[in-house]
Write a structure and sequence with these properties.
Length: 477
């Protein structure tokens, strides 16, 4: 899966403003390390914006920071290859007003350590949080650029990208699930996210007006792409086409209302009287359909706003990866697994984790939804692989984030058969999460019946996100 939304990083190199010392001691060293930084970071997953000349005067610092701000950079690197006056670095940092990294080296000939510690100490005196990296541009391991700098950059860029996001809240509280509710004004204050409340009826109204040829094309792509469609009296071609129409209507709402992520109530209103919205959430989260690839749109079921926001953060720290949403449904103490079904939808990407989306679709069966209105669920067992699972929750009004680095595993036939038998007719897509941590403690402290996830390992990034947003991180070990 091709990642999008690379962090936009601005870098200014600071050096001694004294003319004599700069020319005699630092000019050559500064220029060499500026060049090294640009060349070295070219292979990193970021969009770097910088300058050919070091900033040595207040006027030059103001000019360079002004240009970086116009470029819309999200993270600031103050490069201190040699000694510089700390007040100049502080000036640049305050001008930018962004999450900041102080970067220097451990070469005894540069006096960079003095500049790094002087600048960092000055920032701490005024309460400006920052990250410090002291390492040469080498492949010495552990490489702090990989293990320390990039997680911070990904987290800081994600927090910056949240600002101005628009959340689409479709429907209202579902099935009395209070943990999915949210305070729009708390979001606006803490995350700078706007919220747009949209009625279910808007999906219904638009679905009934979608062009028939458009529905037919999307329906044909869907049925040709999946591994099988298990039609019966509850899952008819007519019911499935109506779900496809609802999907297309939801896509239109997202485009017209300029939404960035969302949540949909669905149950019990639509599942009782219209159709489950499982096709919509599976495809929107997956990022591809009959029209080709598109940026994944994180959307949660059962109107879970905090679940959707968790998904959006996971998408941003991972550079645009598809995210998934599930119930914490069953704790397998004996086998060390947590069973994560969804009420009917599973992000299509996780059916195969393949860059070619249609190959993932072949691992999905459309099976009957055991709801009064019928229709389909996207049945699959998500592929094995590394995962970061997370969940934003509130305790007495204050946010915390649960963070778990784990993996999905392929269950044995015995485990799967037993789960299927226990579920009876109510078969849903389900992931099997390895629980090599204190499961009893997890049950004691986890504050939601839902959880979100993304492929890969992003624990460090999420801890930085929590720090930047003043949220308590709760790492499950």
């Amino acid at each position: 899966m091709k990642k999008m939304n690379l962090p936009k990083v601005g870098m200014i190199t600071f050096s001694d403003p004294r003319e004599h010392e700069y020319k005699v001691l630092y000019q050559e060293k500064t220029a060499a390390r500026m060049k090294q930084a640009v060349e070295y970071f070219a292979d990193y997953g970021m969009e770097l914006h910088t300058f050919e000349a070091a900033a040595r005067s207040p006027e030059e610092i103001d000019r360079q920071t002004g240009e970086l701000k116009k470029m819309g950079v999200e993270v600031f690197i103050a490069n201190i290859p040699c000694w510089t006056w700390p007040n100049g670095v502080v000036r640049g940092v305050l001008n930018m007003g962004l999450p900041t990294i102080l970067l220097s080296n451990d070469d005894p000939g540069t006096h960079g350590t003095v500049g790094l510690l002087g600048s960092g100490g000055a920032l701490n005196q005024i309460g400006y949080s920052h990250l410090r990296i002291q390492q040469d541009f080498t492949d010495v391991h552990p490489n702090l650029f990989d293990t320390k700098m990039m997680p911070y950059i990904r987290a800081a860029a994600a927090v910056r990208k949240l600002q101005g996001r628009v959340f689409g809240f479709i429907g209202g509280r579902s099935l009395g699930i209070d943990t999915g509710s949210f305070d729009p004004m708390q979001w606006k204050k803490r995350f700078q996210i706007d919220s747009d409340h949209i009625d279910h009826e808007e999906i219904i109204r638009r679905a009934e007006a979608v062009d028939a040829e458009r529905i037919e094309a999307a329906f044909k792509w869907l049925t040709d792409s999946v591994g099988a469609v298990r039609y019966d009296e509850k899952l008819t071609e007519e019911r499935l086409k109506y779900q496809v129409a609802c999907y297309l209507a939801t896509k239109d709402i997202i485009a017209e209302r300029h939404l960035d992520f969302g949540a949909i109530k669905c149950m019990p209103d639509l599942t009782n009287f219209r159709a489950p919205q499982c096709i919509s959430t599976a495809l929107l989260n997956g990022g591809y359909d009959a029209d080709g690839a598109f940026e994944p749109f994180p959307i949660s079921c059962e109107a879970d706003a905090d679940g959707a926001l968790t998904m959006e953060i996971l998408k941003l720290v991972s550079g645009g990866m598809p995210t998934m949403f599930a119930d914490v449904s069953h704790i397998g103490y004996k086998e060390g697994l947590i069973y994560l079904p969804n009420c009917g939808s599973m992000c299509t990407y996780y059916a195969g984790r393949c860059c070619d989306g249609c190959k993932n679709m072949k691992n999905i069966e459309l099976r009957r939804a055991n709801r009064p209105s019928g229709g389909a669920v996207t049945f699959t067992v998500p592929s094995a692989g590394q995962m970061t699972m997370a969940r934003l929750c509130r305790v007495d009004g204050r946010y915390q984030m649960f963070i778990i680095e784990t993996e999905f595993v392929e269950p044995s036939g015995e485990i799967l058969d037993a789960f299927v038998k226990a579920r009876g007719v109510h078969q849903l897509p389900v992931a099997f999460m390895k629980a090599d941590f204190d499961i009893e403690k997890f049950v004691d402290v986890f504050n939601s019946n839902h959880i979100s996830g993304v492929a890969g390992q992003y624990k460090k990034e999420l801890i930085h996100v929590c720090s930047l947003l003043d949220i308590e991180p709760v790492v499950i070990r």
